[in-house]
Amino acid sequence: MKDTNSEMMNSQNTPSTHSQNYQRNLMVNVRRPEIIKSVLAVCPDDLDQKSRLEWLQEKRCVGVWAQCSACEQYRFLADVHDPCALPRGKWTCADYPSLSCDVPKEEPSALEEEHFIQDAYNAGSVVRAKLDDCPWWPAMIDDDPNIETFYWLDGIGDQPLKYHVTFFDSREVTRAWVPASRIRRYVADKPPRVNTTIPDTMRLRLNVAERQAQQATKEKDLLKRLRKWSFVARYKGEIKAPKPVEELMPFIRRFMRQNPDKM
Fold it and tell me: Crossing angle of helices 49-60/222-229, nearest 10°?
């Protein structure tokens, strides 16, 4: 988290470039139905880009399918919108008031099955993200306004390789794409160790970011959290409409080829 914010994005069309190291982050086995494409197909045409993204936030607040580690069946948890609300590691039917392993299993619809992704987070999940030469920084999983999604798949697997985050900060709102291996759940009472040599200005910003993240986690309603802390809520400039996908793909492919270690 450099003072210049050079490795983040606070404009509409500036990519983040930074190398990453690998770190495994164990999560509950959660499958979330990916409904973005079908939702956007019915998005009202008269919305500006900011309103369109807010509309998408609302439509995406759906439940998750979580796998019980005892009976190994997937259960649909309609009122759980944030996978981080589930316990880290193992989850069982007994953890959910209305369930037990004896309850017959539910079957996802064909549409849900087609669009399942192995997703540790949802838009609005509060996390810590690591950029080069910066401490682990409080952030929130959030949509990239350029491509209207918050994760990146490789086109083969169903597990996101990267997530788009918006950083908590006392300065102008910034955002970046970060490899999944460089993102952790946010745990307020277990902050990572911070290098004692970081500048005082950065330490002050980090303290503010910690307080903002704690404030955000107290709001359990994911939509309300997004309406206050998302990029579109905090960015003071114009949220421009994204370019057509066919125009963006050459840039995206070139970035991935030039930065293979960032995956």
Answer: 160
Residue with tokens 């914010």: 5
Among the ranges given (58-72, 87-101, 218-232, 245-259), the one the predictor scored with the smallest mean pLDDT: 245-259
Eight-class DSSP state of 191: P
Distance CA 211, CA 214 (A): 5
**210 Cβ contact list (under 8 Å, min separation 6):** 138, 168, 188, 191
166-213 pLDDT, tens per residue? Answer: 999 999 999 999 999 999 999 988 888 888 788 999 999 999 999 999
3-class SS string, 211-259 = HHHHHHHHCCCHHHHHHHHCHHHHCCCCCCCCCCHHHHHHHHHHHHHHC
Between the two ends of the chain, the Cα-to-Cα distance in Å is 19
For residues 217 and 188, give the distance between their C-alpha atoms in angstroms, rounded to a whole number.
9
| Ordered structural domains, the chain, with CATH | 30-262 (2.30.30.140)
pLDDT value at 156 more than 80: no
Helix (H) or strand (E) holding 32: strand 30-33
Strand partners, 178: 163
Query: Whole-angstrom Cα distance, residue 254 to residue 251?
Result: 5
Distance CA 30, CA 107 (A): 15
Give the whole-angstrom CA distance, residue 92 versus residue 181. 25
Residue 228 sits at the vertex; the CA angle it makes with 164 and 88, to the nearest 5 degrees, is 55
Confirm if 116 and 108 have CB atoms less than 8 A apart: yes
Q: What is the pLDDT of residue 229?
A: 98
